[in-house]
Amino acid sequence: MSADPTDGLQRAAERLCQARRVVVFTGAGMSAESGIPTFRDPGGLWERFRPEELATPEAFERDPDRVWAWYQERRRLMEAAPPNAGHLALAAMEPYFDEFTVITQNIDRLHQRAGSRRVLELHGTILANHCHYCGLPYEEELLPEKTAPICPACGGRVRPSVVWFGELLPEAVFTEAEHSIENCDVLLAVGTSGEVYPAAGLVRQAKLFGVTVVEINPKPTELTTVADIVVRESAARALPALLQLLRQYRQAGACSQ
Ligand code: OAD
Q1: Domain range for residue 69?
Q2: Are residues 157 and 231 in the same domain?
Q3: CB 3.0 to 4.6 Å from 83: which of 114, 126, 184, 240, for a disulfide?
């Protein structure tokens, strides 16, 4: 496998040229260049915080205000963050294919803000809230910073609509993600360590269905061994470059459609 990103990009663009259905599977590295920290890189969130104190149902039940306040701080950062050139390139690529699905582990909604139309959020979103006990959506616009709101229906505490460790992924979303994976020609795995299941299992599943897997990540990951093509480059550099190559190949009539 070549270490030169140009080589990987060319091979990825050639393969995309022949593809009709594409899935992009994204993780925290996708939004790193928007200024949102990842989890497992040096200095990442899980180096500074303990997930079991902030990202589990038990943590919320023990200290809802602490968990709420931590997520509010992250929400403010995410709302202020702009989609980066990688998000925008993915949105611009979408019309070139019959089906283009973004499956994301990110909770920041940056793909949607960049213009991607079919986005499956495996880990929910920080931009919505619901009652932890009765599930009622909580749609107040003004949210307290430090204390988890009280549910008007049952008196329980309101939480962000994200998936925590130990919780099930939204079933309908996961089923749709599996369907897209099984029916796609190419999968781009962008900015994920591939360490969190069941999400990461989707990439391995893709291999079983004969999908070409392209990894875009500056560093090797758990998924590198399943990748057919590797691009050792950041998302905001690799994806616009890939889009440009794709446009060139299409203009030159080198693509099958
Ligand atoms: P990680 O923090 O585990 O991995 C981030 C990946 O992004 C690493 O492989 C980095 O090398 C790569 N990366 C860093 N900067 C990049 C850039 N500019 N461009 C491309 N790649 C870059 O994040 P995830 O794989 O998303 O779950 O983690 C998966 C889940 O673990 C998250 O959804 C979250 C976390 O705990 C929950 O909170 C349930």
Answers
A1: 37-80+124-162
A2: no
A3: 114
Of residues 87, 111, 123, 130, which has the active-site annotation?
A: 123
Report pLDDT for 3: 56
Q: How far is the CA of 32 from the centre of ligand 1 (A)?
A: 9
Atom in ligand 1 nearest the alpha carbon of residue 38: 2
In a shared domain, residues 135 and 253: no
Tell me the whole-structure pTM to 2 decimals.
0.96
The ligand 1 atom at the shortest distance from the C-alpha of residue 51 is: 36
Q: What is the number of structural domains in the chain?
A: 2
pLDDT tens figures, 210-237 = 999 999 999 999 999 999 999 999 999 9
Tell me, what's the pLDDT at 191?
98
Give the long-range contacts of residues 110-116, CB within 8 A, separation 24 or more: 110/30, 110/31, 110/34, 110/78, 110/81, 110/83, 110/84, 111/26, 111/30, 111/83, 111/87, 113/83, 113/87, 114/83, 114/87, 114/88, 114/90, 115/88, 115/91, 116/87, 116/90, 116/91
Which tens digits make up the pLDDT trace of 153-194?
Answer: 999 999 999 999 999 999 999 999 999 999 999 999 999 999
Q: Among 138, 162, 186, which residue terminates a domain?
A: 162
If asked whether residues 180 and 196 sit together in one domain, one would say yes
β pairing state of 21-26 and 186-190: parallel
Length of the chain: 257
Q: List the CATH number of the domain containing 154.
A: 3.30.1600.10
CB 38 near ligand 1, within 6 Å: yes
Residue 132 among the catalytic residues: no
Does residue 104 sit in the same domain as residue 211?
yes
Same domain for 103 and 117:
yes
Summary mean pLDDT of the chain: 96
